[in-house]
Every structure is written in C-alpha cells, then in structure tokens.
C-alpha cells in the first residue's frame, strides 16, 4: 500500500489549501473526477505528465483514508 503522505500535500498557498499531488497543482479532486469519468492511469499521465502510477495510487489511498467505507452511501442499481 502506498503511503499517501509522501505524495499528497495541503498548503494554503497552493490551490487554496486543497489537497494536491506534491510538487504540482494537480488536485486530488481532479484526479478522482477523471478516474470516475473513465480515464485510465495512462491517460491521466499523458494529460498530466507530473503524475506517476504511484502518485495516482496515492490519490486513491488518500481518498480511501479520508472517506471511510462505512461513510459511503450506495444507491441501488
């Protein structure tokens, strides 16, 4: 498992304090949105060359840690 703390940071002087991939202005929310829209990791890295497979996994680990599964709401399909 990736230690997201090595890859994700939040600083009030960068993107108004939104969590971003360290050393970039790429927000966690943007990466999650693109993944939810069906983008592959390869497509993300092509669109945002600063991303790596590990940094994308760190975004997912961050989201998982900040949004426990017990808090998720699932709708019926």
From TrEMBL:
Q: Which domain of life is it from?
A: Bacteria
Q: Known Pfam families for this protein?
A: DUF433
- Fetch the InterPro entries from UniProt: DUF433, Homeodomain-like_sf, WH-like_DNA-bd_sf
Q: What is this protein called?
A: DUF433 domain-containing protein
Organism annotation: Chitinophaga fulva
């Amino acid at each position: 498992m990736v230690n997201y703390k090595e890859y994700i940071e939040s600083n009030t002087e960068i993107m108004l304090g939104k969590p971003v991939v360290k050393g970039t202005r790429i927000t966690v929310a943007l990466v999650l949105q693109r993944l939810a829209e069906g983008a592959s990791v390869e497509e993300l890295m092509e669109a945002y060359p600063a991303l790596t497979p590990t940094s994308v996994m760190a975004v997912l680990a961050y989201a998982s840690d900040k949004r426990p599964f017990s808090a998720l709401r699932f709708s019926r399909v």
